[in-house]
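A protein record pairs a chain with a discrete description of its three-dimensional fold. The following entry can be read in just this way.
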Amino acid sequence: MILSLEFIFLSSSILVLALANSSSLCADTLASVPFLRASSIIQSDHFYTTNISEIEGTLSNGVFAFDGNSAFLWSTPQPGTIPLFRLYNENSTDHFYTMSSDELPEMMARGWAYDTAPNHTAGYVYPFSICGAAPIYRLFNPTITDHFYTMDIAECQSAAKDNGYQDQGIAGFAILPSANGSVVKIVASAVPNLLPSTVTASPESQVSVTPSAGCANNANSIPFMRAVSSAGTDHFYTTNSTEMNVVAIAQDSYLFEGDTVFLWPTQELSTVPLYRLYSQTASDHFYTIDANELSEALSEGYVFDTDSHIAGYVYPYSICGASPIYRLYSSFSTDHYYTMSQAESASASAAFGYIVQGIAGFALLPSADGQLQTVTVSASPFLLPASIEPSPTSSLRLPAFLTTVSITPSSLSFPSKALVQSVVSRREILGLSVLTAVWMIL
């Protein structure tokens, strides 16, 4: 039995019901819909739509093949989202999607025109990485005149390396269709995969700076070195090589692990301080960008660990090619752990009992997959594609990030050391339920 796309869409919609986002600053995950992708070798075109009837009509002539669900976005405006415009060039048979209204006249002058999508819009996306959203990468092949969009960084790199596509940045931010962003061919089994939200006690830090704020100078970024105590119960991070070699390694017997992040030693455009604290009782180094969380940590016995109180400067959001710094915590060893590697984060969680607490900030990768650079002298930052910024007429002006530090203990609670993230297990259960239902129908 061949399932209709209507049935598949209904099944995925039922699955989405369990993943609603309660934050008023975020789009409602319950309302997100699959962004379906089809491709044509004959026409050298990738086509994307949220409309089931439209995708079925596109597939009916045999020119296009169905690839699957490439993202979860919204068919109507939601808090924090902006339109993703859709255009088409009949001469080159190329569909084009952008959230920048400044790009629209440029593309129209080159032969693209509004397509048949309602309100000229394919859907609604975030202009920045907020509320657990991830980037939609945009590529272009000038030889065959084809724009290509994917949330899968491996697919993005393969298209650029092997198929003649050129990186054109980030087209917007939406919800992943799978854990690694790969297209899910059976739409009924696609589940919105939210990235961890930024760790914060203040709602202001969940929204982004304006696009005009500018980027830090990448040439000024330096390695954020990591070491672990000999007992394995504390991870220590610093940009100071003397402190690392003389104090941490020689004096305190820490083991050097490598460069985990590239950040900035002094404040630059759009960056905020990453505060550094230490608890003598817990033997735990703790780093945060959040002023309210900082006050809570101080009230729980942590103290500033440097004269400046600051370990370095990072972005509070995914802008300018920056990537997330994942923060984890082990209640068993009372250890906060920071990494830019999704694989390392998953391993620490599965094998060593660490719990993902979210994202501590955004900085530059030490390598393509976020793995540590163990030879500091040869390390260099690795940039994600920069966002194709929305124009002032298409973007929303959102509140600025709160960075004022109050040393007075805050009434807001410090992240619980018993915090348990159960989203993955719920998704697995829901996914199995839908797959079981599909199997029984078959």
User: Anything to note?
Assistant: The chain is about 20% helix and 30% strand. The first strand starts at residue 32 and ends at 40. Helices lie at 5-16, 52-59, 103-109, 153-162, 241-251, 291-299, 342-352, 423-441.
